[in-house]
Write a structure and sequence with these properties.
single chain, 216 residues, alpha/beta, TIM Barrel, 9 helices, 8 strands, 41% helix, globular
Length: 216
């Protein structure tokens, strides 16, 4: 059985702040109500260090209900006992990642345009991370912001759940969910805050309030 796709994804990145480790960020995000924690590590670390980090995060999340996703590296996910990977535009192709991790793994793909979203959605991914919707502070050379109109067009064009990313704040959660996002992924709005758990709670509250309003 595949891991569930959460609606609130918190991406850990230790290069944007100096207070918390990946493991600490994972614990804090889970305490704040994140469904999914994504390990993002862009430094040139050895595979062994990456596997050890992912395994430590997996252990830290046991019993919390939050799932761990490894960014970029299907081999690291497999070695660390993690059941999910998110693939970027220049990472391993989806078919090879699926061969490594198996049919029960959760695999996400990345798209920065309508054409790319349609192409990625046609592969064996389980969901798409689409953005930047509003912009981003975590990349040196980011793609231009999509805006809500293009984001909505992407959601309507693909038949896979779409996770919105890119300068998502708690105040913007309702707008992207109204545009059709299945959920949101956040990075600096959580990991750069003095209290990542409290920052995560703000997003959790915004998502739950939106879902409650739709059910009413």
């Amino acid at each position: 059985m595949k891991p569930p796709l959460g609606r609130l994804h918190v991406i850990t990145d230790v290069t944007l702040q100096t207070r918390f480790s990946h493991v600490e960020l994972a614990r804090l995000a889970a305490a704040g109500g994140a469904d999914t924690i994504q390990l993002r590590e862009k430094r040139s670390l050895t595979t062994r260090v990456l596997v050890d980090t992912a395994a430590a995060m997996r252990r830290a999340l046991e019993g919390t209900g939050a799932e761990l996703v490894v960014d970029d590296r299907a081999d690291v996910a497999l070695a660390a006992g993690v059941r999910a990977v998110h693939l970027g535009r220049d990472d391993l192709d989806v078919a090879t990642a699926r061969a490594i991790l198996g049919g029960a793994a959760l695999i996400g793909g990345t798209a920065n345009s309508l054409a790319e979203a349609v192409r990625v959605a046609a592969t064996d991914v389980d969901y798409l991370g689409v953005g930047p919707v509003f912009g981003t502070r975590s990349k040196a050379n980011p793609a231009p912001p999509l805006g809500l109109d293009v984001f909505r067009a992407i959601v309507e064009a693909v038949r896979k759940p779409v996770i919105a990313i890119g300068s998502i704040t708690a105040d913007r959660v309702r707008s992207v969910l109204d545009a059709g996002a299945y959920g949101v992924a956040v990075l600096s709005a959580v990991v750069c805050e003095a209290d990542p758990a409290e920052a995560t709670r703000a997003f959790r509250g915004a998502i739950d309030a939106w879902r409650g309003s739709r059910a009413a």
